[in-house]
Amino acid sequence: MLFNSAIFVFVFLPLVWIGYLLSLRLPWARAGIGWLGLASIFFYGYWNPAFVPLLLASILFNYGAGRLLDRSLWNGSAGRRKALLIGAIAANLAVLAYYKYANLLSSSVGALTGIATPVFDVLLPIGISFYTFTQIAYLADSYRAGKSEKSFSAYFLFVTFFPHLIAGPVLHHSEMMPQFLRDARRIAPAVVLEGLLFFACGLAKKVLIADSVAPTVNRVFLLAESNALGAVDSWFGALAYTTQIYFDFSGYSDMAVGLGLLFGIRLPLNFNSPYKSVSIIEFWRRWHMTLSRFLRDYLYIPLGGNRHGPLHRQVNLMLTMLLGGLWHGAAWTFVVWGGLHGAYLQVNHAWRRQVERSPRLQAGLARFPRAASLCFWALTFVAVVVAWVVFRAESFSGFAHMLEGMFLGSRTLDAGLVDARTAFYVCFGLLLAFLARNSQELFSGVSVRLTAPGGVLDRPFFHGARVGSLLFLVVSLTLISVSWGTNEFIYFNF
Amino acid sequence: MSSSTSTSERAPQLDLRRAGLWLLGALAGVLALLVLIELGLELLLPSVRGLHRDNPSSPAASARFVRNQEYSFAMGWDLRHKVRGKTNAMGFLSPYQFDAVAKPAVALFGDSFTEGEMLAYGESLAGQLEAQSGGAIVPLNFGLSGAALPHYLGMAREMGARFEFDAAVIVVVPGDYLEGFEEKEGLYSWGKPGSELISLVPAASRSRWKQIARESALVYYVRGNLKFNPATLFARPGQKACMPHALAAADRERLSRYVDALPRALRLDAGRIVLAVNTNTKDIYERVDRPRPVRDACPDVDALALAELRRLAAVRGMKVVEIGALLEQHYRAHRRLLDFRPVDPHWNDIATTLIAGGIVRELSLAGGPAKGRPALARTD
Fold it and tell me: What is the pLDDT of residues B153-200, one digit of tens each?
């Protein structure tokens, strides 16, 4: 079920929300958790019920593994405990590898050896990367802290909670469990309004900007598969995709945060105006923040991080980015994307070291701070745009054609790809991304302001008017979304 | 005691009042936005009100068209590709007054693709037919959005009785056979088995308020631009499994009667009738852009019926233009879109130019105006 579909907005969400409010009034403390868990499984199964057993098995397995890790802390040896953790993580990765990477591996072996390799008839279960990573993090935390989750219903909801199940944010067990387990009997109206604001803003980002540029992006990258394009067409396509992916994924993340708030749950933020970054290091602190956190805490640091000297750090960083790239999809283009960002980060770190060592450079940068920032911002943005090209390209030949068009201006095709309307959306979207305040800057303090004495909550008419107009906006945006036909979120594929 | 009682009694009243105010506020918020959008669509943006039909009691379908009606058209949520125009004195989309046309002329029947509301006249199929024939073809465009095969025949009868045609072009699109069974108000649909081949569905009579609501910019926008359809609102995306179909004897008989009835209705020899058969441009893009191993074709009843219609038309001596082939050839060479997808599937001016070229060739009328034909007076 898509967050921008009519069935979700008009049927599923209102029913689940009302049901949740009623369940909070029941005498059983866990009724709300149970209701949300059931609703989340329905949400997941609506797409393809065949994958529900896999999700349930994964939850049971990891819950059991967590409990065993707990028990072995007292009964077993440290070695046995570590083996248990490694075994459990390996099992998770094996399932992910089978569903996501089996065909990539098979075709790559075939291409390298010339042997006819089998093609596996597997369909990628939606959200598998997200729920697998969430649970691997949980196992690692349980191992470190020596304390796993005792409540199965809370653990079940932690994994399946529908606002994050399909495309994140990647949750941290410790930040969610206290929220699920608190004895809440109502949801504060201010939090609901804040949730509605986030949800409407995310839906607007998705429907009005991301979906409006998507047709041009699709055409440019499709035609680039077999043709060299002109410089204008290629840059236009690359910038359009840069706009689309930001508004699509940050729109999704805003909607997820908003949905969480509607149920009184605060999900972690995933974006913080990444295109305002003046370095790649900063970009990765602002883009898909929960994945960056996961990669840092569960891959980069366990690999050794920066603890064994600069060379090791560079290797660890590159490995982390390559695997982070591969996590996005079963194609070597994603690995190259990760590698490209790994290389950018190496250059960025080297430059920082150089600046730290050179007083002349420091003085030069301090003399023209604005110009320097502008140059760094432009350089970072172009680097990100180029990397998005390989991320979006369906093959290396498509990537090569796009680069050829962008930097050499080759052209074999004049298919009229640039249109004024899409150009407007790209410019408008990028200006918003560069200059405007982001969703959390706009809405995060709303609930505090609303509940302040004399705030809107004290004036029911105005509070009602706000909620009414927001609901109308959500309905209108959903109708626009439906008029586009099927427009999945980009990260649903990962 | 009394004070505590009065407090506990007052508390729920206070809540009720707050709840009432809240609800009132919510309604006011919705209403304010509704009015704002309606005003915005009516005043700030070009009018989005397209063509609408009257609901008269006349037994003729052509009597429903609103004469000399100014209209504008824009597609998509953001009102792109704006077109303004005015219907002629018969209510059709043409800069010509058909009654003033120096006879004979070429009749053009079809649905919204032929009507061309989303194109300026010069870009539409009718305009392109005129341009590419160097004025030799005088197209009387009877295309109508939502029409299907039975309506083309019905209009052919009505207009054939009124005008003397030199030739006729019937543009058939996928879905035209099965859609003919849908009883759309004011349009001809297939008749019941054993009765007339086609029958006119009476136009619905609406109350004044319903008509006003129907004609509001917001309602038009939601229905037209957002393509709102309650029946498909909750439809799940995905391909349907292939169900093997076959044409029934009744279908074959219906189609046979149809091709026999057309020349009679138009008072033309079959050789002066061109059947232009459209295909889905999406399929063309798929074939060219993403060549895949050929799967077994899975035609539905409609596709089988249109294939049969094509065959029968050729047997009767009508000329058949395969629009799909014309469009695919061009797309393969240039990769330029032939429509407004994904916002709207209708042809753009590239497609109408190609199709008109194919039709003109079939009519053997290219190369300038026919000798002795009086010039037409345009009324725009």
Answer: 999 999 999 888 889 999 999 999 999 999 888 899 999 887 899 999
Minimum-distance CB partner of A413 among B30, B78, B335:
B335
Q: What residues have CB less than 8 Å from A259, skipping those under 6 apart? A: A3, A13, A162, A163, A195, A199
**Per-residue CA distances from A353 to A347, A359, B142 (Å):** 10, 12, 75
| A447-452: Cβ within 8 A, 24+ apart | A447/A188, A447/A190, A447/A191, A447/A193, A447/A194, A448/A190, A450/A189, A450/A190, A450/A193, A450/A194, A451/A188, A451/A190
CA distance A189 to chain B (A): 12
Tell me the β-bridge partners of A43. Answer: none
Cβ distance of A473 and B227 shorter than 8 Å: no
Please give the Cα distance from A35 to A24 (Å, whole number): 10
Provide the β-strand partners of residue B339.
Answer: B347
Q: Which residues contact A346 (CB under 8 A, 6 or more apart)?
A: A314, A317, A318
Q: Quick check: B205 pLDDT over 80?
A: no
Phi, psi for B66 (deg, rounded to 5): -85, 125
Q: What's the Cα-to-Cα distance from B196 to each of A159, A177, A225, B189, B200, rounded to whole Å? A: 63, 71, 54, 10, 10
Q: Do A464 and B22 touch (CB under 8 A)?
A: yes
Residue A27's pLDDT band, with cuts at 50, 70 and 90, is confident
Q: How far apart are CA A179 and CA A201, in angstroms?
A: 24
Angle, CA of A68, A74 and A77, to the nearest 5°: 85
Please state the rounded mean pLDDT for residues A140-167: 87
pLDDT tens-digit map of B350-363: 999 999 999 998 88
Domains and CATH numbers, chain B: 70-230+243-363 (3.40.50.1110)
H/E segment holding residue B360: helix B349-363
Give the model's pLDDT for residue A440. 92
Nearest to B22 among A413, A415, A463 (CB): A463
Q: For chain A, positions 273-312, list CB contacts with chain B under 8 A.
A: none
* Sequence-ordered strand ranges (E) for B325-378: 339-340, 344-347
DSSP state of A288: S
Q: A6 CB near a chain B CB, below 8 Å? A: yes
pLDDT tens profile B92-110: 998 888 887 765 689 999 9
Question: Shortest CB distance from A465 goes to which of B18, B26, B335?
Answer: B26
Helix (H) or strand (E) holding A317: helix A310-328
Judged by CB atoms closer than 8 Å, whether chains meet at B342 and A416 is answered as no
Q: Which residues pair with B273 in a beta bridge?
A: B168
Region of A351 (left: φ > 0; alpha: ψ -120 to 50; beta: rest) is alpha
Hey, what are A33's tokens? Answer: 């958790």
Nearest CA of chain B to the CA of A158: how many Å?
28
Residue B201 gets which letter from DSSP?
P
Secondary structure of residue A334 in the 3-state scheme: helix
B303 neighbors B174 (Cβ within 8 angstroms): yes
Report whether A324 contacts A284 (CB < 8 A): no
| ipTM of this predicted structure | 0.82
Contacts of B23 in chain A (CB under 8 A): 464
